[in-house]
Every structure is written in C-alpha cells, then in structure tokens.
C-alpha cells in the first residue's frame, strides 16, 4: 500500500512538472513565430477572438477533465491532455488495453496499463502525423489521393469504427445499462441533430450514469 | 520577404521541437509505468501486447487526424496545423479558433482563404494556443483531488465503482454511435434555397452505419475466433484489426457503389 501511494504520488509530481513545461512550450510556439516573423499581432484582435472561443471551449474543458480523469488514471490524464484527441482516441485505446490485460480501470495495474497504452498511442500518433505532414508538404499527388472521393469519406468514419468495435465488447457485457443511453441519445439527435459532440458526450455520460444508478438501486444489475 | 512565411524553415524547427517534447514526455511516462508494472507483477508479455495493440489501434485514427491538417492547410500552411493537431488540438476545436481569429481580423472566407498577412497568421496562432491551455492549468491543481475521491469510492464499493466506470464509458460510446445513427452533417444552401449535403460522410448515412455495423461484426467474429481457436495473440489485436477491416469495407463500398455510399439521411 505504501509503495502504491508512492508511485501515484510521484506520477502527480512529475505530471505537474510536465504540465507546466507543456504550458510553456505551447505558449512559446506563437511567441517564437511572432518574434521570428517580426509580426506581433494586434492584442484587440487576439482578445476578441479568444473571448469568443473561451466561452465555447473553457466550460467543455472543465467537464472533460472531470469526466475523463477517473477513467484515464493519473499518468494517462497527464499524457492525454497534452496530446489531445482524448474521447476519439486515447480513452478508447486505454480502455481497450485494460480490457485485454484484464485489469480494472481503478486499480494500480489499470493505472500502469492505461499509462503504457496512452504513451504508446501518443508516440504513434505524433510520429504518423509528422510523417504524413512531411509527405503532404512535398508530394502533392499523395495529398490529392488522401483527399480523393474514395478515401476522404472513409477517414470521416474512423471514429465510428473505433466505437463500433468497442461497443461490441462493452454492450455484450453491460447490455442492460447500454439500452437507455443509446436510445436517449438517438432520440435527442432526432430533434437536435447538429448538437456539438462535446455537449453530446456530456449528456450521454450523465444519462448513462443516471440509468445505471437507478438500475443498481433497483438491483437490476 | 514573407511570401512563403508559413513554411519558413524556422517554423519547421519549432514543430520538430514540439514533437520531440511530446515524445520525450510520453517516453518518460512509458518507461516509468513499465518499471512499476514489473514491480507489481504484470507480465512482460502483457505489457508488450499493450504496446503493440495500442500502436496498431492508433494507426487509423492518426491518419485521419493527419488528413485534417489538410483542412487547415489552405489558410495556414502545414506547420501551424501540424503543431496544433499534435499538441492538445483536435479539429473540432482548431477550426472554430482559427475562424474566430480570422473573423476578428475583419477578413471573410474563414479557413477557406489563404492567410497572407503574418500578423493575422500569428493572431490565429495565439488564439489557437490560448484556447486550448485550460486543461494544463486545471489538471495540476485538481487532478490529485479528483483521483483521491475516486479511490475513496472504489475502496468503499468496488462493484458500484466498476459499474459507474462502465456506465461512463457506455455514455461516451452512445454519444458517438448516436451521431452515426442520427447526427446531422454540414449543409449547403443552394441559390434556389434548397438544402444539399455539403460534405459526403460527415452526417448519419450509409457510410456511418456501415462503419458501425461492420466493426461490431468484425469484433464479434474475431472474439469468437479467439475463443474457438485459442489464439491468444489475437485477443490484444481484435480491436485494431476490426477497425482496419471495417475501414477496408468502407473504402470498398465507396469505390464500388459511390452513389449508395453517398446516401445520408441527416444533413
């Protein structure tokens, strides 16, 4: 138990240091660009645009941190929030790995497997994006191929293939608590089909938790 | 002087620096987790399988993220979208951030126009960067508290905690599947006022349903195969294989029957 606390504590200590470093790196990017191009932007323009998107993004960011942190584990959270694409890549990847390794998400084994999975996913994704961007920059024919009518619509379906495959394993195991959220979300979308995915995830998670809570209290699950 | 400023070698160097930082952080946590895994008795094979399956799992989504760089490249070149989509960024955040900055600069056309003024370009870079940093401020402050609350709940009632964890993830799955079943894609209004589908594949339709159904079928088949034939190695790879096979089906459908594939009921 003492070891357990020590490991998690060090994850938080290092995680915080990396977060602060990441903050510096992220802000250094526009600063270095502005300095090198000798083109510091008008503060009024930045402030106006930032104000409009902060209202949109910041509440979602708070919800995301609270919703994903318990599922990702400590190490996984520090890593995921630096590289992004959490709901559509890092979280399903970590959950799939924990499922395969047969470890619980809230155990130390789960913490370790989740961190290994998310770190590997982050490295793979970063390298693939880098390779593709270099090819895009130097090979217009490849860029045209990736934007072709045959391939472009397929790339828009990748998220559905991830969640379809995950649904197959989760819904089979937890079919009782799955029916309500999927039916409720589909119904909501019939009336408000262009609802933002961040809000939809929040609504889906809350409805699913409420449904499972009621079923648990009624001893249906 | 600034004709090709968006592809300036210095900007590429900044991107490389960011990539090195991301990989260094990931390696740091990866090595520590593997060391800890060994200490608490996780087998080498389990950890190796986690690495291989996670890498395979990430290939298709990574390519789809890389393709979204192209969406932003018309306005911003390759380097800035590359950096933004490698660090925190996701396309659903980066496009509105860029659009807001372009709009605030008094320009029309959004991300469909080439940004030729360096000051507008750097304004966009600042807005994109400032727009995504809140989690990096929040996490160091609240994560430990959130985690200890979760641990407390788990220690009190493990069954309840497991159920809630599964329910939270099922809620997430429902959101994405629901969008594939009934989500609305981008719409274009013609001169005559008629609504038409602006982008094939972004709304609920034949392609999204094919993706969902085929990946479910492949996953169930591979799981069954794993059970029947006792192919241990397949267990860790069932998920990424299902995804890749499903993408193959979509490309095939889109090539063989493009008219059928283009059908969307929500746009």
Strand order of the largest sheet of chain B: 1-2
Share of β-strand residues of chain B: under 5%
Strand content of chain A: under 5%
E-strand count of chain A: 0
Main beta sheet of chain A, described? none
Q: Tell me the overall shape of chain A.
A: globular
Termini Cα gap of chain A: 31 Å
| Subunit arrangement of the protein | heterodimer
Gyration radius from CA atoms of chain B, angstroms: 23 Å
Globally, the shape of chain B reads: globular
Mean pLDDT of chain B: 88
Helical amount among residues of chain B, as a percent range? over 70%
> What class would the helix/strand composition of chain A place it in?
mainly alpha
Number of strands of chain B: 2
Largest interface: A-B, 158 and 160 residues
Mean of pLDDT of chain A? 89
Residues in helices of chain A, as a percent range: over 70%
* Cα radius of gyration of chain A in angstroms: 21 Å
Counting H and I runs of at least 4 residues, what is the number of helices of chain A?
10
Derived from helix and strand composition plus strand pairing, the structural class of chain B reads mainly alpha
Succession of helices and strands of chain A: HHHHHHHHHH
Characteristics of this structure?
heterodimer; A: 221 residues; mainly alpha; 10 helices; globular; B: 267 residues; 2 domains; two-stranded antiparallel ribbon
Protein architecture, described:
The complex is a heterodimer of chains A (221) and B (267). Chain A contains ten helices and no strands. Chain A starts with a helix and ends with a helix. With 267 residues, chain B is mainly α. Chain B has two domains: 132 residues, no CATH class; 85 residues, no CATH class. In chain B, 75% of the residues lie in helices and 2% in strands. Chain B has ten helices and two strands. Chain B has a two-stranded antiparallel ribbon with strand order 1-2. In chain B, α2 runs antiparallel to α3. Chain B is globular and about 60 Å long. The mean pLDDT of chain B is 88. At the A-B interface, α1, α2, α3, α4 and α5 of A face α1, α2, α3, α4 and α5 of B.
């Amino acid at each position: 138990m003492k070891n357990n606390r020590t490991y998690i504590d060090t994850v938080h200590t290092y995680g915080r240091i990396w977060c602060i470093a990441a903050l510096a790196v992220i802000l250094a990017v526009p600063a270095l660009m502005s300095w090198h191009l000798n083109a510091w932007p008008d503060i009024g323009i930045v402030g106006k645009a930032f104000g409009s998107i902060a209202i949109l993004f910041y509440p979602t960011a708070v919800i995301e941190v609270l919703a994903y942190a318990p599922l990702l584990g400590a190490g996984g959270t520090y890593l995921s929030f630096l590289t992004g694409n959490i709901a559509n890549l890092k979280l399903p990847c970590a959950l799939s790995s924990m499922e395969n390794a047969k470890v619980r998400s809230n155990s130390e084994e789960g913490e370790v497997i989740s961190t290994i999975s998310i770190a590997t996913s982050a490295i793979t994704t970063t390298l693939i994006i880098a390779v593709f961007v270099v090819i895009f920059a130097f090979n217009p024919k490849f860029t045209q191929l990736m934007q072709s009518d045959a391939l472009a619509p397929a790339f828009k379906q990748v998220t559905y293939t991830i969640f379809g495959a995950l649904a197959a394993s989760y819904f089979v195991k937890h079919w009782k608590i799955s029916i309500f959220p999927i039916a409720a979300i589909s119904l909501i979308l019939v009336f408000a089909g262009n609802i933002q995915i961040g809000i939809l995830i929040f609504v889906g998670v809350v409805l699913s938790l409420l449904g499972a809570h009621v079923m648990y209290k009624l001893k249906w699950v | 002087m600034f004709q090709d400023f968006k592809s300036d070698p210095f900007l590429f160097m900044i991107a490389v620096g960011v990539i090195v930082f991301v990989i260094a952080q990931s390696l740091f946590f990866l090595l520590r987790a593997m060391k800890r895994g060994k200490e608490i008795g996780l087998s080498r094979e389990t950890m190796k399988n986690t690495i291989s399956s996670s890498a395979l799992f990430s290939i298709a989504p990574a390519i789809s993220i890389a393709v979204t760089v192209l969406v932003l490249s018309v306005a911003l070149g390759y380097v800035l979208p590359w950096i933004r989509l490698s660090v925190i960024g996701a396309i659903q955040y980066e496009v509105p951030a860029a659009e807001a900055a372009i709009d605030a600069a008094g320009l029309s056309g959004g991300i469909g126009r080439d940004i030729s003024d360096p000051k507008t370009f750097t304004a966009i870079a600042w807005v994109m960067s400032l727009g995504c940093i809140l989690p990096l401020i929040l996490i160091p402050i609240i994560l430990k508290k959130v985690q200890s609350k979760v641990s407390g709940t788990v220690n009190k009632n493990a069954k309840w905690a497991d159920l809630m964890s599964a329910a939270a993830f099922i809620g997430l799955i429902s959101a994405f599947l629901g969008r594939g079943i009934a989500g609305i894609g981008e719409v274009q209004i013609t001169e005559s006022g008629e609504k038409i589908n602006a982008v094939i594949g972004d709304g609920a339709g034949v392609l999204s349903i094919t993706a969902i159904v085929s990946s479910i079928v492949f996953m169930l088949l591979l799981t069954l195969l794993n059970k029947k034939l006792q192919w241990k190695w397949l267990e860790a790879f069932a998920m990424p294989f299902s995804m890749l096979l499903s993408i193959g089906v979509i490309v095939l459908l889109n090539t063989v029957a493009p008219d059928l594939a283009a059908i969307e009921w929500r746009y």
